[in-house]
Design brief:
By secondary structure, the protein is mainly beta. The chain contains 2 helices and 10 strands; from the N terminus they run E-E-E-E-E-E-E-H-E-E-E-H. The strands form 2 sheets. Strands 4, 5, 6, 7, 8, 9 and 10 form a 7-stranded mixed sheet that branches. Strand 8 and strand 9 form a beta hairpin. The chain binds zinc ion (ZN). The site of zinc ion has 8 residues, from loops.
């Protein structure tokens, strides 16, 4: 079971790729490590509410998510968080606005390629709940949910369900 049908180097079909971790071609020795990718997720809070995005793209279209995304090469996690927030919400925040929460591993299936991620969570307290979507292709809408009314079943990603469930439910 692999998302590669052929060796990318010699097109052989004789290879091993156990658990989608290390691809090794038996014929030419081509080796590829499908390492985990680092991502950030930001929990915006205002009073007793938490901000969720509603995903507009698969995986998990229609499910609740958090703002955030993959960390680019040469970027710190905090810089990635600020960049993603600017791109998704049009909001300027600084790295000092971010309070580290925890990390949690996740699976991210995109166009049939199973990525494994390490999601890094930050909290950002807001002084207003007026906030809007910038990246309408990615996000259907934003919803503020009271901490005692969060429905974990609406959350798509395992890592986010876990962290919200452990840290944010009253
Ligand atoms: Zn090969």
């Amino acid at each position: 079971m692999s998302f590669f049908k052929f060796c990318p180097s010699c097109a052989s079909t004789h290879f091993s790729f156990p658990d989608n971790r290390r691809f090794l071609c038996d014929d030419c020795g081509f080796t590829y490590y499908h390492n985990i990718a680092a991502a950030v997720a930001i929990v915006f809070t205002f009073e007793d509410k938490v901000l969720f995005t509603v995903r507009n793209i698969d995986p998990d279209k229609g499910k609740w998510d958090l703002p955030g995304g993959f960390i680019d090469p040469n970027e710190t996690a905090e810089e990635a968080a600020c960049r993603e927030i600017k791109e998704e919400l049009g909001l300027e925040i600084s790295t000092s606005d971010l309070k580290y929460i925890t990390t949690s591993p996740n699976n991210y299936l995109y166009k049939n390629v199973p990525y494994r991620t390490m999601d890094i969570f930050y909290e950002c307290k807001l002084t207003s709940d007026v906030i809007s979507v910038e990246a309408e292709d990615e996000i259907q809408e934003l919803i503020w949910v009271k901490r005692n009314e969060i429905d974990l079943n609406q959350i798509g990603f395992f890592s986010i369900r876990k962290v919200i469930g452990e840290k944010y439910l009253y």
